[in-house]
Amino acid sequence: MSIKRSLLSAAIAGLFSFSANAADKVDLMITDAMVLTMNQDKTVYQNGTVVVDGNKIVAVGDDSLAQKYTARQVLDVDGDIVMPGLINTHTHVSMTVFRSLADDVPDRLHRYIFPLESKLVSRDMVRIGANLGNVEMVKGGVTTYADMYYFEDEVAKTVDKIGMRAILGETVIKFPVADAANADEGIKYALNFIEQYKDHPRITPAFAPHAPYTNTTETLQKIAKLSLEHDVPVMIHLAESHREEEKIAERADGMSPVQYMHSIGALNKNLVGAHMILVDDQDIQLVKESGMGVAHNMSANIKSAKGVSPALKMYDEGVRIGLGTDGPMSGNTLSTIDEFNQVAKVHKLVNKDRAAMPPLKVIDMATMGAAKALQMEDKIGSLEVGKLADIIVVDTKAPNMIPVYNPYSALVYSANSANVRHSIVDGKVLMKDRNMLTVDEAAIRQEALEFTDVVRKTVVESGEVVQ
Ligand SMILES: [Zn+2]
């Protein structure tokens, strides 16, 4: 009798606690996680929980949090690293189909890439390349990327489908290209694209003037003005090469590319400058004061022997700076995780100081730093309540990851992109246990492989050697 009564009261209590907790029913919970929040205090929960409802993070904390919620989907990650999704601040995603062509050709951009693109860039090429690159990024833990290329409306369709987040910049350049006969047509194309995507929840349309020296002053000023009117980003290759430096010095009375952009009124918070290798202290000051973002593409810059950007100095001085891979003809991978190692080691070498670039700084540049560079730090870049649920899970049981005494060191010096287990964007799981859930990966790979026949034929016909 008393047992029955206590069972009854337990049942009633259960009923009440169920109704009291009804408000705490959520969509997704990640449990048993080593959570790197990347918040201001860089809080780490060794045995942590991340709670997601809809597309937002509603709670982050230790294991006790798991008792307070009932989730439709629970990912028990068994001690794996849970961290903010990586943000790739600079790429040309569609160029995956050209990857490994003519890697070490001198003056490659002008002698090889521009001619190749004039023959092969099309809506199909852009779509096929973007689909492949998107899969590579999601599988490598990149949840947001910033792109500069042609037919960006095609890239947008692929981003929409896979479920990633992206800033997509439509190229403006002074010579004829696949989707515009001149810079003015490029601006028109960009304006149409901006109109089409300005209200998309995950896609931010943008202008992408190729570089200062491949556009006129008038074009750069027009874009700066339009970007402020429409409140959209402007992405540009800036202070990247000596060729650019010479052309701009000729045009602007010996000014550096950064000084020149400042002098024409084009340096502002909407601008994201990729590379920024050839910058001095005065340039860094201008960059900092303008509030612009910087994309640091270490592997592309050292592969092309263009130099090492003073990115660490910019970071230490409070410039908005994040990591990027550059395009797959330059990098050659699109996964930021494969940059970590090089970013850490090269800055140490250049500064002749093994403590110069601690792993925590590298991870910060790939998450919050990158979010700041893209002016998105109030939405992404850390695991905090109210932020969008862009989250990745990194395997700590892979042979190359055992043991993890320091998660930042493990990520920077031991991890590779294949260690990413799950990728979540906007609260939705896009990859689970390395399986893509929103797109058909096999079909995407097949289509890309088929397109390489077209590339091979064109390259051979043009007399260029496939290396
Ligand atoms: Zn680039």
From TrEMBL:
According to the UniProt entry, where is the signal peptide? 1-22
Similarity remark = Belongs to the metallo-dependent hydrolases superfamily. ATZ/TRZ family.
What is the recorded name of this protein? Chlorohydrolase/deaminase family protein
The Amidohydrolase-related domain covers 81-429
* TM helices/strands, residue ranges: none
CDD domains recorded for this chain? ATZ_TRZ_like
The entry's keywords? Hydrolase, Signal
InterPro entries in the record: Amidohydro-rel, Gra2_protein, Metal-dep_hydrolase_composite, Metal_Hydrolase, MTA/SAH_deaminase
Q: Which terms does the record give in the GO molecular function aspect?
A: hydrolase activity, acting on carbon-nitrogen (but not peptide) bonds
